[in-house]
Amino acid sequence: MKSTQIETDSDQQAQIETVIAQVLAGRRECYETIVQTYEKQIYVYCRLLLRDQTEAEDAAQEVFIKAYKGLGSYEKRASFSSWLHRIKARQATDSSIQSAALK
């Protein structure tokens, strides 16, 4: 069972890297595949941390904007999901700090 998960993760990574190459080649519409793949995970994390639906939606959107803008700097040393989740953690933390400062 564990080897199946590894194969699935490997297949997903290969598919995501293909999509990244397409986006970097100018096919911006392909980025939607990345958003659809990770949007639930990103939103749920932001929602749990921020405890506010609107702030979580805004933070999740910022994660995808930052990832899109930084896509050219993604290196295959780590999985794309790890790279994206680092952006998510920083964004959610920044949003939490900003939210606390406004209260």
Automatic annotation (TrEMBL):
Q: Do the record's keywords include Transcription?
A: yes
**InterPro entries tied to this protein:** RNA_pol_sigma-70-like, RNA_pol_sigma70_r2, RNA_pol_sigma_r2
Q: Does the keyword Transcription apply?
A: yes
The UniProt record lists the RNA polymerase sigma-70 region domain at 35-94
This protein's UniProt keywords: Sigma factor, Transcription, Transcription regulation
The superkingdom listed in its UniProt entry is: Bacteria
Report what the protein is called. RNA polymerase sigma-70 region 2 domain-containing protein
UniProt source species: Saccharibacillus endophyticus
Recall the taxonomic lineage recorded for the source organism: Bacteria, Bacillati, Bacillota, Bacilli, Bacillales
